[in-house]
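Morning F.,

Quick status update on the modeling queue. The single chain you submitted on Monday has been processed. Sequence for confirmation:
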Amino acid sequence: MRRLRMGMIGGGPGAFIGPIHRIAAELDRDIELVAGVFSSDAGRSQVAGAAYRIDPVRAYATVADMIAAETARPDGIDFVTIASPNHHHLSAARAALAAGIAVLSDKPATATLAEAHELAALVAAADVPYGLTYTYSGYPLVREARARVAAGALGTLRRIVVEYPQGWLATGARGKQAEWRVDPARAGDGGCIADIGVHALHLAEFVSGLRVERLLADLAAVVPGRSLDDDCQVLLRFTGGVRGTLIASQIMLGERNALRLRIYGTDGALDWRQESPNALTLHHADGRTEILRAGDGGLSADAVAASRTPGGHPEGYLEAFANLYRDFARQLRGEPGSLVPGIADGLRGMAFIDTAVRASRADAGWVALEI
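Structure tokens below.
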């Protein structure tokens, strides 16, 4: 089978996530980056195209130019990756979907919930794959945790705790990556809650199999002069009344990328930390503590499929990202087994952001999470 051809929107000079997408997409040699609109500035798009080693004529000035040219080529792109700030997500996806081109997008799906509903309608009408890069769902031991919960290893679930502390925005927002995240015109209504809070929400729901039904949100812009939230705490009620807590913050000095998920049940509990992703801790009701390692024998089929090396050879962020690309390639080829989050996850994420922001501003207390 030939390699799938990818076009990228965003990811130009100075971008963090663009090169990550390129590395992850090409890790398994199943996908090749061949085209892109890497910047809203045509000159910078050309510079990025040269850095990515693509044909200069396929480094385009606008999304419309790329869609028109690529759909006319016999070797045109099979899908686009959207790696631009949130306010570009809808327009970029709309252009691709209208041309029948599949989309893999950074999270959150859009800048607002209204845009997410519009996008959902476009995805349904286009009938081509649409996915979201909730990266942490690609880790082998996250998929193992999901399989253990689904098999009843924890018994009846009682409590879910997910936390995502960072400290990189504790002072000023300097540099390209920081500036757009604190700008409502580019980020949307949510700051930290939209940037990393949705990652925490998705991880909790992905592993537990439960859905948040109600929440009580307390969001704050702690750094003076900032209009979007940078510190968030949210109480959650999941399906069946299971209680939960979500913390997401970008002002916790000393923290880097400390995403952590703990789930407690009647028969056991689990603990996974993104900064030590190759270990999953299981606590049993009889007092035993078991530590599973990536590559161990006896892991679930999903965990094994997401692992590339024997135990003791660390795999991390890039490999997890690549697992999503490998799954998305399966979808494009009509093969089963993909765990890539889709538009339903996108709607849930945007509803969570919208509900949390509005409820916190109104000091509304407990409210329903309605899609």
